[in-house]
Amino acid sequence: MGWLADETGLERNAANHVPLTPLSNLTRAARIWPDRLAVVYGPHRKTYREYLERVTRLASALEKLGVRPGDVVATMIPNLPPQVEAHFGVPACGAVLNAINTRLDPDTVAYILDHGGAKVIMADPQFLPTVAEAIERMEGPAPVIIEVPDDHAGVHGHGHHQSYEDLLATGDPDFAWILPEDEWESIALNYTSGTTGRPKGVVYHHRGAHLNAMGQVLSWRMVLYPRYMTIVPLFHCNGWCHAWMIPLLGGTVVCLRDIAAKPMFDAIADEGVTHFGGAPIVLNMLVNAKETERRDFDQTVEVFTAGAPPAPATLRAIEPMGFNVTQVYGLTETYGPATECTWDDDVWGALTGDDRAAIKARQGVAMPAYEHITVMQAEDMAQVPMDGATQGEIMIRGNGVMKGYYKNAAATEEAFAGGYFHSGDIAIQHPDGYVQIQDRAKDIIISGGENISSVEVESVLMGHPDVLLCAVVAKPDEKWGEVPCAFVELKDGREGDADALIAYARERLAGFKTPKRVVFEELPKTSTGKIQKFELRQKARTL
Question: Which residues, if any, are the signal sequence (predicted)?
Fold first, then answer.
């Protein structure tokens, strides 16, 4: 099907078919822009020529340590240059990068090291105690430890292990990269931040990493020489593939160790940052920053936000500050963003205030690496009516979907049932095809037989001037089965009034959707800024 009648002599060959890989993005950039600034972190300012040499030395040094194609190399490093370099250097020796969440406990890290079979782990001194304890708990062979000091931040090496810079010194700058022979070869192994049971190992292939990186250039409307600030942790879906993406345009990666308002504003003002990605909590940091933390800047900063639907109140507040926010949505299983709320100025250009923010809070339509993203009923894979009301599950098909779960064929088969990846996210679909999340399946509150979207209630509460963050979960109730319970983190200097907040919500929501209990406290969060609702659900059961 689709072949010419006679294709003799039209076979694939080395001249017309090369496996897709994001690794070629860096070698190309070093040829075109050898002297352009590639990676910045305080005094660390490397050109593409220097960046390529460091990556090549890393690949060579790992091979000298005994790392072979298909082996796993782990990292526990903040958003620093060595973590950026590992995204190219580890696969350049044929290995698979396993960037581990730096906030995990030793027991989970031990499981990941055992399950993934890491041969080497490169770790920041801050996390070496966790790594050491994890290795003690491992059942299999321990990985070689490479210490990655951060002298700029005062996080100095302990001297008990070979340092990262000493490792690079052993590498050959002329080492020939081991590129994939098949674009289906694995490039990265990421573990989900599941709240029940052991995390699952999500495997990425070179093809998907390349196409996701390439597609986001289009989605983000990027032109040459962007200056990208690393807010999304590089261990989280490989930083949404952004380390692989930036060399496509000769851009600069601006690294930040600590995610706080002042260093973000400083980077935007001093380094000319044009792009960053982050969860809505990051937007709240900027909106609620003290005057002493803020800096003036001339450029418009393009922001991808994901992790939870941003409250319209947050979007309404941040855009006048010089930020243009695009809502994206995805999962570890989709290399990060899979949908984007593409703005149609012809249709929505006249909208302002809440009306504009409400559109921007949608998760949107498929990004370029995806064939089809829609909302279906999981039971029979039937498309739900695109009426902006009927709920179903977001289903995803395309080159940006993982290979599967490592050593877990049953979970992989279940996730891909019916020829689509099952996201587990409950959504509606508007007549224009735009998807809008209502909730995670486990976060829907069922009260007296009625479904309540925690996202809808949270969006209302976030509009209150005293509220910094909030999360709404189900609280068991003898009469209704479940009722909404709101956990609220207040802005500095504000005092909580539960009755007033409930009255505020009742003016804007149906009675059964109004929180029946409000608790004021700091909310538990993951390293990517997601609120850990499973902890709050457990707490709500005891109230």
Answer: none
